[in-house]
Amino acid sequence: MSAQSLLPARWPVPGVFVALVLTVAIGGLVVAVDGGQLFHQATVVSLLHVAAGLGLVAVGQTLVIVGGSLDLSVAYLISLSTLVAAETMNGSDGAVLPAVGLALTVSAGVGLLNGLLVTRFRINAFIATLGVGLLLKGYLDNGYDGPAGVTAPTLVRTLGYQRIGPVPLSFLLLVAVTAAAWFTLARTRFGHHLVAVGGDPEVARLSGVRNDRVLVTAHVLCSLCAGLAGIYLASRLGAGAPRVGTEGLYDLESIAAVVLGGTALAGGRGGVAGTVGGVLLLASIDAIFNQLEVDAFFKQVIRGAVIIAAVAVYARRALRRGRS
Amino acid sequence: MMTVQSRPLPMRPRVRPGGLLPILAILGVLLVLVAVRQPDFFAPPSLMSFLGRSAPIILLAAGQYFVIVSGEFDLSIGSLVTAQAVIAARLIDGEPARTWPVVLLLLGCGALVGLVNGLITTRLRVPSFITTLGMFLILVGAVYYWSDGAPKGALSEEFRRFGRRAVEDVPLLGRIPYALLVLLALGALAVLVARSDFGRTLVAVGDNPRTAELSGVRVWRHRTIAFVLSGVAAAVAAILLGGYSGVSFQAGAGLEFAAITAVVLGGVALGGGRGSVAGAMLGALTLELLLALMNFYGVSGALRSTVQGAIILLAVALSASRSPSR
Amino acid sequence: MAALAAVTLLSLAACATDEPAASPSGSPTASAAGTGEQSKFFVRADYEAELALLDAAPTGPADKPWEQALNPTMVETAKFKRRGPHKLCFSNAALNNPWRQVGFKTMQAEVEAQRSRIREFVHVDAEGKDQKQIADINDLLGKGCDALVVSPNTTATLTPAVEAACKAGLPVVVFDRGVNTSCPVTFINPIGGYGFGHVGAEFVSQRMKRGGKLLALRILPGVDVLETRWSAAKVAFDKANVDVVGVEFTDGDPAKTKKIVNDYLQRYGTIDGVWMDAGAVAVAAVEAFQDAGRPVPPINGEDQLDFLRIWKQAGLTAIAPTYPTYQWRTPIIAALRILDGQPVANPWKLPQPTITQENLDRYLDPDLPPLHYAMCGCTDLPGYPRRWK
């Protein structure tokens, strides 16, 4: 196990893509029977937009989870990042770069805090990031009584609404970030170390990995991804929004997407491609139910069941592979 | 991880001292702060009512302790509390005669949800974080769906009594809330269970499931029972909380995080194998006292989460630095 | 890597955008004024205009308040005239609280009442997520709707999506929360914000002990309509020299509410008045006083039946300004009028009825569940009362 986890994160095509294809095929059929059209351009664009937002967060979440950690503060960080970006821009195109830079710097700072609490102060990631989330919540509650700032029109036009055919620019951003994360995880020293730390921290330490540094880096990367998601949302919404992250349930949904994508919650195993599959699966279920006008609460029941069932299937496969 | 115990388990499981010192210290500091600001808080009637209203979260923390010490999580308890309060209101619908049957039904439901959580986690090998997160989504979705998005019916006065009323005219103390009596009884029971063979084995399971398995413990059975205990605790909490404040969809919102925070504050290690149920319950009491303290000191409503977050981080960091084993 | 291939393929396709023509979509009134009096949501001109509306005489049928409008300015809609029956689409912010549930049922009943004129009614629930509602609106644009009704989740952030819908050429009707653009044909809502906060605060400050201690219980920070309610209340309290000893957020959680009230009672010995920015936890606040064995001070709630019942039963000194759920009928009526080419009011300000001791009995409907909102204007609609049970 531990020897394997030092190898690059090569992981067979996760079942999530099979599930995705099946879901879209069956869903498309049901929607068609119902008299609707799942592959209508507007629907596809909407689906990809929703996937882009969640996807950016989930890719970052994958990195910390592979390293055996977790980040529950992302939802608040996303809101914070939309506000930092939109307030710095304040409607001026000239301020886009400083705003993006500032939002990402703040995000990296939060990631650093998370990472240090988890490593130096040895606080369990669950509590550490929950606590940091509360710190941010207080700041947001105290400082904002509603949307604030104005996103630069250029950014709204491009990242927020521009698309190529049915594919929004934001989804291409997700593809690029995913590719970068995949490369980092599979082809760099840091990536190998991260997988090793997630697999067995003791073995990793003994083989010369500087566990703390690796985990802190992973947390910073995760927060950067959340910050990027915030910038995207600010361009989509045209303003900073203090509740957008929590209302979107980005914390729990991103973890769900990661796990749906076949990454082990305990760490040491998984990858970002599967995560994007998980995000697309969740977004497709959303889109199908939207078309069928299924009750939102019933949909939540289905989501819960799908998540449990999917992970049960992975666990079975892993078990079989372990035995053979 | 920790150094592997070579001693046979669970024949003579280690009895850890529990590490109650940090949580007692924090509780002490908060009590002093309360005493400075609001001395009459310690007058028997007000103290009794404070303990009564804190009973639900303390019981949830006790239930969560069993799950966490065995190395798992239960994120479904908040939604379980909400679901049960809503179910109770709809089934009772103001009829006093239905109170006891519904109470029994709720306890059964709690145990059943715990059993399902436990079996999915142990038999299907789904990490409990995911199992109980899925259960959370399912319960919230189902109860909203079932009640069309707004709770219906009403709780009977008999049902609400457990959480809202008190034994009056007690000498010295004035009045003792029923919730406090329930808390004392079940709290004592929880301590007994934690000290029983089962409780000790559970700690061993959380410490090192493989070693426990090798020494003949049926790990899955112990963990499943832990989930059932947590589910039953959630049912009791729902009865008390529904009684205290009436039915609403907010009844259980966020309680899972509160309970886990309380357990960790009480010195129980996430990941299992270390901690005591008394610590977990003291952790919950500390959390409740912190909220009351913020009311007494008039901490601005919007800033509260920051204060709460900072204190939690500080407390956990302090207790983490005191334990050399991790 | 299929993704990369797809990207290259797609980049060959034509560039396109869903963004509306670069119209100034800044947030105008709200952030501009900044009186600094309490929050940036307090805009004195809006405040005074809304308070003036409280006394305005509505135009429209007296027995149908959902068709009434205050000081209406009519807009021409001839260009939207179409032959029916129509397909109406509705992008809903959420259905996650009893107010929205009652409202949506009322809207569905209105649709049923107008069955002969509505061929299809499409409803999409954004589950309280801005991001999803933007996607929903975009999605609905591809569905051949004759008119689009939007109940935005957030004011500023839904503006671009609503502008895109206007640009698509179909008539857009916005209600409840507004958007920062004038492109919809009409925006419907009751006085609701400053007016709501003012009526409750004025009543409480007049009835409570002079110079007494008041506790303000709020649901959440950061929700604009609740912020305006509080800012208007603050003005009233300052004017009446009321000592506001606490402003606490309850998260709509009755247990938390009871704990807060209890601790405040202990801290100050007595609380002489309670003001709320929404009625959801009013009953819990009342119970907290009852359980502590204290008289319940003057308090405001909303038109939820559980509050009205405890008011009657305990003989409270209370008032219930309302944000009536019957406003969910109006967008359907407005959309149909627009599709007929009839002029409609814009903005369409509905009156804000207030439940007082005098008219309380009229609203105590024994048939409906405790969390039902009495001001639903639904008694004449198909399926009453079963649909709302």
From TrEMBL, chain A:
<keyword id="KW-0812">Transmembrane</keyword>
<keyword id="KW-0472">Membrane</keyword>
<protein>
    <submittedName>
        <fullName>Ribose transport system permease protein</fullName>
    </submittedName>
</protein>
<dbReference type="InterPro" id="IPR001851">
    <property type="entry name" value="ABC_transp_permease"/>
</dbReference>
<keyword id="KW-1003">Cell membrane</keyword>
<dbReference type="Pfam" id="PF02653">
    <property type="entry name" value="BPD_transp_2"/>
</dbReference>
<feature type="transmembrane region" description="Helical">
    <location>
        <begin position="38"/>
        <end position="57"/>
    </location>
</feature>
<feature type="transmembrane region" description="Helical">
    <location>
        <begin position="96"/>
        <end position="116"/>
    </location>
</feature>
<feature type="transmembrane region" description="Helical">
    <location>
        <begin position="160"/>
        <end position="185"/>
    </location>
</feature>
<feature type="transmembrane region" description="Helical">
    <location>
        <begin position="12"/>
        <end position="32"/>
    </location>
</feature>
<feature type="transmembrane region" description="Helical">
    <location>
        <begin position="214"/>
        <end position="234"/>
    </location>
</feature>
<dbReference type="GO" id="GO:0005886">
    <property type="term" value="C:plasma membrane"/>
</dbReference>
<keyword id="KW-1133">Transmembrane helix</keyword>
<feature type="transmembrane region" description="Helical">
    <location>
        <begin position="297"/>
        <end position="315"/>
    </location>
</feature>
<dbReference type="GO" id="GO:0022857">
    <property type="term" value="F:transmembrane transporter activity"/>
</dbReference>
TrEMBL record, chain B:
<keyword id="KW-0472">Membrane</keyword>
<feature type="transmembrane region" description="Helical">
    <location>
        <begin position="225"/>
        <end position="245"/>
    </location>
</feature>
<dbReference type="GO" id="GO:0022857">
    <property type="term" value="F:transmembrane transporter activity"/>
</dbReference>
<dbReference type="GO" id="GO:0005886">
    <property type="term" value="C:plasma membrane"/>
</dbReference>
<feature type="transmembrane region" description="Helical">
    <location>
        <begin position="277"/>
        <end position="296"/>
    </location>
</feature>
<keyword id="KW-1133">Transmembrane helix</keyword>
<protein>
    <recommendedName>
        <fullName>Autoinducer 2 import system permease protein LsrD</fullName>
    </recommendedName>
</protein>
<feature type="transmembrane region" description="Helical">
    <location>
        <begin position="98"/>
        <end position="119"/>
    </location>
</feature>
<feature type="transmembrane region" description="Helical">
    <location>
        <begin position="47"/>
        <end position="68"/>
    </location>
</feature>
<keyword id="KW-0997">Cell inner membrane</keyword>
<dbReference type="InterPro" id="IPR001851">
    <property type="entry name" value="ABC_transp_permease"/>
</dbReference>
<keyword id="KW-0813">Transport</keyword>
<keyword id="KW-0812">Transmembrane</keyword>
<feature type="transmembrane region" description="Helical">
    <location>
        <begin position="176"/>
        <end position="194"/>
    </location>
</feature>
<feature type="transmembrane region" description="Helical">
    <location>
        <begin position="126"/>
        <end position="146"/>
    </location>
</feature>
TrEMBL record, chain C:
<keyword id="KW-0732">Signal</keyword>
<dbReference type="GO" id="GO:0030313">
    <property type="term" value="C:cell envelope"/>
</dbReference>
<dbReference type="Pfam" id="PF13407">
    <property type="entry name" value="Peripla_BP_4"/>
</dbReference>
<dbReference type="GO" id="GO:0030246">
    <property type="term" value="F:carbohydrate binding"/>
</dbReference>
<protein>
    <submittedName>
        <fullName>Ribose transport system substrate-binding protein</fullName>
    </submittedName>
</protein>
<dbReference type="InterPro" id="IPR028082">
    <property type="entry name" value="Peripla_BP_I"/>
</dbReference>
<dbReference type="InterPro" id="IPR025997">
    <property type="entry name" value="SBP_2_dom"/>
</dbReference>
<feature type="signal peptide">
    <location>
        <begin position="1"/>
        <end position="16"/>
    </location>
</feature>
<feature type="domain" description="Periplasmic binding protein">
    <location>
        <begin position="90"/>
        <end position="342"/>
    </location>
</feature>
<comment type="similarity">
    <text>Belongs to the bacterial solute-binding protein 2 family.</text>
</comment>
